[in-house]
Please model this.
Amino acid sequence: MKRVLDFILSLIAIFVFAVPMLVVAFAIKIDSKGPVLFKQHRSGKNRELFQIYKFRSMYIETPNVSTENLGDPSIYITPVGKFIRKTSLDELPQLFNILKGDMSIVGPRPALYNQYDLIKMRDEANVNIVRPGLTGYAQVMGRDFISDIEKVKYDKYYIENQSLFFDLKIIWTTFFNVIRSEGVKLK
Model:
């Protein structure tokens, strides 16, 4: 049932956000050299790698590591990138990942392919058995400002307490976090 809802809701969201996505793509192309989309290998359900899609918010020379490992990420973020990260518009292309079945709307955020410690901790906590999400419980509990240990704790709690009501609560909280730009590391 969750997969069917993910498919339908992502398809609707793609149509609803089509014009804003085109505007963002145009702004990125004008702002800095490089592709509009950023593609990166991430660990998915059962640790299968997939390519996640995001609007490119950083310069193309940025090291391929998680934001918390960049030191001062603000030096890598483009002017348009700062806005789309703050508003989470950079995440909209993941609607296509959801449509394809790589991701779910709600689930643990997908780890980078090279976040070996996080992937190992998630294996030990049985978190990697579900599709990663566009948003998740750990995401709404701190996003860029919590440790991997805390992420896994929240992810495990989510897996053990999954329900439509819990998913709706996470989506609702995500909406308000995006409006307030909470949990985004820009400096």
Observations:
- The mean pLDDT is 91.
- The CA atoms of residues 42 and 70 lie 18 Å apart.
- The radius of gyration is 16 Å.
